[in-house]
Amino acid sequence: MITSNETDTMTLTDAEIIITIAAQAAVCDGNRNATELAQISAAATRLGLANAEAVVERASRDHEDVRTLSKSLSSDDARRAAYEIAVAVCNADGMADAKEIAFLQQLSSTVGTPPGTAEMTAIASVATLTGDVLPPPVPTTASAQPPAAGELDEMIMDQAILTAALEALPDRLSNMAILPLQIRMVYTIGQRYGQQLDAGQVKDLVATFGIGAAAQLMESVVRKTFGTLAGGLLGGMLGGATGMAAGATVSFSATYALGHAAAQYYAQGRALSTADMKALFTRFQGEAETIFPKVQERVQTVARRTNLQSVLGSLRGR
To answer: Does 148 lie in the same domain as 44?
Structure first.
């Protein structure tokens, strides 16, 4: 058993507390979204927490004082991780509301170095994009012809590489831009097949493929925040890969699979069943994992020339 005074490893107790805080962040606005909680539980299970479902269920029902929970963590790194995960969860579907902001303020009071103005501005900038990243509608006449074979492949690959590159940026919350990029990609694919969509429809489709905003952000922030500290928690994932390497692989695979599965879904007139859609996603995810080693150098190149502000600018059409 890992002891709490080993500063080079996050303990299992820390992991349970952080997941508890994430679940409380998900319900602090008064809305108990069962799907979101299930996705957080699944994410925690993938990260190695054996009793994740019970932890999340208890946390969503029994509201412990978040400041007490945070203070019980074994290190400042763990408290910082808990705060950043809560920020990600509260902003997963757009700007945090008043209740979520109050929750985050309580939690930030326990962090050794509270977030600065610049960091909070960056967080707010990314969060506002979650529901406002869609390009202008394409006229029906312009989108009537389906894309030629292979036409979308390059765009999907570019987006998969960009989301992987975000995992390597120094800003630990830069991965909050991943979901807006995925939403815009799916919307663009739908348009190319003549679909008239809104943000809600696209978000629902993304969730159907098993990509939950809060869960995806939580996984990314845990990986990026802890790096090697997360070794004990992440040891069973992707053959033991941890930190940014694992994050890049997961983000690349999810975006690649989402893009190709969405293309088939729209190509078949949105007639696929949920089971068929999930099977497609799983198949393309496996394909992506074999492709990733071949594009790792390209991911690193994109990461070197990318920063959060340039990504925000592209999402805003600048």
So the answer is: no
Supply the range of the domain harboring residue 160. 132-315
- How many domains are contained in the chain? 2
Whole-number Å distance between alpha carbons of 265 and 276:
9
Instruction: Classify burial at 5, counting beta carbons within 10 Å of its beta carbon; exposed 0-12, middle 13-18, buried 19 or more.
Output: exposed
Mapped to the 3 state alphabet, what secondary structure does 244-272 carry? HHHHHHHHHHHHHHHHHHHHHHHHCCCCC
143 and 112, same structural domain? no
- Rounded to whole angstroms, the Cα distance separating 146 from 44 reads 39
CA–CA gap between residue 33 and residue 19 (Å, rounded) = 16
Q: Which two structure tokens, joined as six digits, stand for 210?
A: 């098993």
Nearest CA among 39, 62, 50 for reference residue 16: 50
Residue whose token pair is 């869960």: 215
8 Å CB contact between 165 and 114: no
CB 41 within 8 A of CB 210: no
In our burial notation (b when 16+ CB lie closer than 10 A, e otherwise), range 241-254 reads bbbbbbbbbbbbbb
Structural domain ending residue among the three candidates 125, 146, 171:
125
CATH code at 86? 1.10.3680
Q: How far is CA 294 from CA 136, 210, 289, 290, in A?
A: 34, 25, 10, 8
Nearest Cα to 2, choosing from 218, 244, 225, 229? 229
Residue 187 lies in a domain: yes
CA-to-CA separations, 313 to 21, 159, 201, in angstroms, rounded: 32, 15, 24
Phi, psi of 206 (to 5 degrees): -60, -45
Lowest mean pLDDT among 6-20, 176-190, 304-318: 6-20
Residue length, the chain? 318
Q: Indicate whether 208 pLDDT > 70.
A: yes
Q: For 185-204, what is each residue's pLDDT tens digit?
A: 988 898 888 887 777 778 77
